[in-house]
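Escalation from tier 1.

The customer reports that the assembly of three entities below gives different structure tokens on two consecutive runs. Tier 1 could not reproduce it. I'm attaching the input and our single run for tier 2 to review.
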Amino acid sequence: MPETTPSAGLVATPVSLWRRAKNWVMTSAAVACVLLVLLPLGAIFAYLVIKGIGSINWAFLTQTPKPVGEPGGGMANAIAGTVLILAIASVGGVPVGIGAGIFLAEYGRNRFGDVIRFTADVLNGVPSIIVGIVAYALVVIVQHHFSALAGGVALAIMMIPTITRATEEMLLLVPNAVREAAYGLGVSRWRTTLSITLRTATSGVITGVMLAFARVAGETAPLLFTAFGNQYWNWKLNQPTAALSLQIFTYAISPFDEWHRQAWAGALILIILIVLSVSAVRVAASRGMLKGAN
Amino acid sequence: MANQALGAPRLPGPQPVEKKNVAVSASSRSVPLIGMRSRPWADRLFYFAMLACGLCVLALVGLILYQLIVNSRLSWHAFGVKFFFRSEWDPVNDQYGAWPFVYGTIVSSFLALVLAVPLAIGVAMFITEMAPRWLRGPLAFTTELLAAIPSVIYGLWAIFVLVPLLRLYAEPWLAKYFGWTSAVTHRFGFQGPFEGPPFGIGMLAAGVILAIMVIPIISSITREVMTAVPQQQREAVLALGATRWEMIRTGVLRNARVGIMGGIILGLGRALGETMAVTMVIGNRPDISASLFAPGYTMASVIANEFSEASGDLYLSSLVEVGLALFIVTIIVNILAQFLVWTVTRGTPARSNA
Amino acid sequence: MGVGIQVEKLNAWFGKTQALYDIDMTIAANHATAIIGPSGCGKSTFVRCLNRMHETVPEARAAGRVRIGELDVYNGTSAVSIRRRIGMVFQKPNPFPTMSIFDNVAAGLKLNGFHDRKRLAGIVEQSLQLSALWEEVKDSMHKKSGASLSGGQQQRLCIARALAVEPEVLLMDEPCSALDPISTGKIEELIFHLKERFTIVIVTHNMQQASRVAEFTGFFLLGRMIEFDKTEKIFTTPSDKRTEDYITGRFG
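Tier 1 run:
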């Protein structure tokens, strides 16, 4: 222990070895945590690429699955199915989500708005399998068969809270002065909200919608007993439909190596699509979504 | 009244008008006033349309609750509350008890938290307090990327990479060095945590993959609340001569405690409802075992596996009842978590009055 | 072309706090009237009551009688219609950020259903000339965004935008307080020409500006109008001691 003399009050006592050691240990521990967390991330992407890239070829992207045991075939119908289900979901999910976001930003700066905001967060946390049950009860039971529509309903329910919160945030970023300028010109409130406020926040809102898409595109659980899956092409709303995520699941748990191989390929395609959307979002964000809203 | 304001500067009067050459017709009105319609009802209509969208959100949650309750009534009448404490899950004889799933959900989530929390906090700590500025963005981005990976892809990777790893290396290692715990637990009549054949597939695999999946959430909330701690707190501790770790411990973590707790609970909420990845590696057997090597079943997994093939109203109703319980538990957990986080960061975004 | 404004017993509140007490004023057509007073005296509130912008703030209300020309502002016409007849320029320039210069000026017309392209172009040119911005932007007005101009130019753009809908009155709420002296000078020059066609009410905390620009001045204090008279009289021989104290700098 370093000595301190009575007159050394103004001299800094060196930090003890024990404290410095603790500091070093904790810093290393934190670094170790980062590495441990990045490890599976890296491993997942590495395996996806290694195991999947070989199987992605033109046949894979354009063919439907072959019967069990036969090699070859593809996930074309699954990719198309995902697009179809997402399209159905966005018909309901996007307008309602944006509308709720507009409500919260423009008319919801009060208790009632808080209730809705809170409920949107609750809705966000509902397990996706439960949403699947509800879509089943609402659509499948009524129609007496699985359908793309049911899948779309389930995904729409999941999209709404994400889009709502994002829209609200973006609209709130529009400075009040812009609204006032429009009011001063004698523009009515609804026109101002749509043509001025929403227009100013457009790229931000689109970002929010894309994020919602990226999130639900990979969902499997809510589709298990709504869209259900399909070996063949389907463009009809009220028939079961294949989806990329469903196909990956079915193939992964199967006992066939051929299907395992295709599962990796499908997963690689899915992750590429998602990473592209998320990155596009980030690029848009850094480029300044609200051009000149200073 | 002063005639000449005392000491007032002689302010110049209005300046003479300077005529500029502005080609303007001063009289005619080029834009007809009549052409501008006034539609006061349009504002009302718009308000109601937006209100309807907002109410949809409320309606959806209500609808979910309603559907779950209505469709589980059959099972509720048949088994009552004991449904959640019975272990018999026998579709052939129409006997259902959800205890194995409840147990499996609790154990897998708990295990996930035990593994995830230290790692998540460590990562968050590193990003906010220790990493050089240029590293922060990329690191934050990559941890968020983990959150974007769909559950089914986690499951796929878990089946073909994680499970063999566990089966071939981790579990035998655990059995070898921690197998002595079995001797202790046998006294109480339970299996040991590392007992039984190491299949790889089982509770441990589920816990590990769940941990990986909830780390981003816990980490992101922790980062948020740590950043919300005012700089003065850090400086105050540093000024007393603390090392960086001591500053983090007393200046940041202590203040962010409540929020971090919220983040952990939020992670728990995610873990409870996680379906696909767990289903793919947990073994899907409604057995209860104290061993982590044994297969199990969670509430979400049983629904995922058996719902589409459930024949019989009671079967289906029982599955829905499991879903109802899961729904209620996750809502309570999420509300609690949000409340904790909100007290630290004051949730609602404010309108900018620029 | 401008019209006079008659204000009788105007009172205004923000929630429970009263901001204006029994304001009576007659504002002359085709002249500029300045409203001066220390911070918080209610000058902005007063002017915003004239075009019913005051009520866009939640929990705000106004009572009294305001007649602009033959229009009764608070009785019988919607706020939106009032605002089409009265233009407003704000303290901080606020062009619409995602629109080009041309679209900014045309915004008031387009958003109210006027889409005749040729005439729009003519009106935009006219308005930009009126606000002395035409020469500076005529080549780039379709390409450059409104927000890419300098502060002074942005404010002139906002003036052009307000003028494009051909209001009869132009309200200006401290239009130069965020600008540099050169831009301020340009805008003050503008007000002279605009006086020929419009009635102008300008709020300012700058007494020299009031005396440069306005024929009439009203002095506000704590929500009341203390004195209203020709500018020259207010600044040389004010009748009320409080006015005198303010203009001599004893407070404010």
